[in-house]
Amino acid sequence: GIQVEQSPPDLILQEGANSTLRCNFSDSVNNLQWFHQNPWGQLINLFYIPSGTKQNGRLSATTVATERYSLLYISSSQTTDSGVYFCAVAAGNEKLTFGTGTRLTIIP
Amino acid sequence: GAGVSQSPSNKVTEKGKDVELRCDPISGHTALYWYRQSLGQGLEFLIYFQGNSAPDKSGLPSDRFSAERTGGSVSTLTIQRTQQEDSAVYLCASSLKLAGTDTQYFGPGTRLTVL
User: Fold this and answer.
1) Nearest neighbour of A41 by CB, restricted to B44, B89, B104
2) What is the reported pLDDT for B100?
3) Above 90 in pLDDT, residue B104?
4) Lower Cβ count inside 10 Å, N or C end of chain B?
5) What is the SS3 string spanning A79-105?
6) CA distance A31 to chain B (A)
7) Mean pLDDT over each residue of chain A, to the nearest integer
8) What is residue B73's DSSP assignment?
9) What pLDDT score does B115 carry?
10) Which residues make beta-bridge pairs with B106?
């Protein structure tokens, strides 16, 4: 099956800093989503982005499908951005395969 | 409702008992998915329902796991003769399955603890 690798596994930043999270995948995909899992365990949709670039406030994402990677950018980090960020992909079927996540900690 | 809902939020059971977990998808969403999140295995797919098609059960870890979706809406995941390794957070998601977008929206999960 498809493999999904996320980096870095852990990231600790001061409030106000910018960050880039990476997701590499091993095959062509027809679905790629970024999620934020908050401290209560809820998976919050950030982007549906199998290709191209999207922006939503301080967050943006870019997927380069031909090179099989996606990047999530967080600018001007806030403490509420802390949590685990997951990339998940689907390749020719409906089931999402998740990466192991990046744990982001924002220090005030 | 506005989002996917799941019940119960927490379930503690004894090894060998059967449990039922419920998922109410977003109204109008034709696709429904079950995943689980455990410390050792991360987030993994279990089963997928789409309309009246036969479900994709390829992620179910054993024949103790089964799921049904009644009337194209509510789904129930049943685990028979629970084992300690079944302890995990069980997540349900739904999607609208429109051309050009297939965003899956997740519920808050049911935390299952098998003693």
Assistant:
1) B89
2) 63
3) yes
4) N
5) HHHCEEEEEEEECCCCCCEECCCEEEE
6) 7
7) 95
8) S
9) 96
10) B93
For A33-89, write each residue's pLDDT tens digit.
999 998 888 999 999 999 999 999 999 999 999 999 999 999 999 999 999 999 999
Up-side HSE of residue A67: CA atoms within 13 Å toward CB?
Answer: 9
Alpha-carbon gap, residue B79 to A2, rounded angstroms: 27
For the cut 90, the answer to whether the pLDDT of residue B93 exceeds it is yes
Q: Searching chain B, which residue's CA lies closest to the CA of residue A87?
A: B43
Chain A residues close to B89, C-beta within 8 Å: 41
Residue A106 has pLDDT above 60, yes or no: yes
Q: Is some CB atom of chain A closer than 8 A to the CB atom of B43?
A: yes
pLDDT of residue B99: 63
Which residues of A fall within a CB distance of 8 Å from B33?
94-96
Q: Taking a C-beta distance cutoff of 8 angstroms, is the pair A55, A71 a contact?
A: no
Sign of CA dihedral A73, A93, B34, B27: positive
Cis ω for the linkage preceding B8 (within 30 of 0): yes
B78: pLDDT strictly greater than 60: yes
Q: Quick check: A41 and B48 CB within 8 A?
A: no
Question: Chain B: nearest CA to A42, how far in angstroms?
Answer: 5
Chain B CB contacts of A42 below 8 Å: 106, 108-109
Distance in angstroms (rounded) separating the CA atoms of residues B85 and B42 = 13
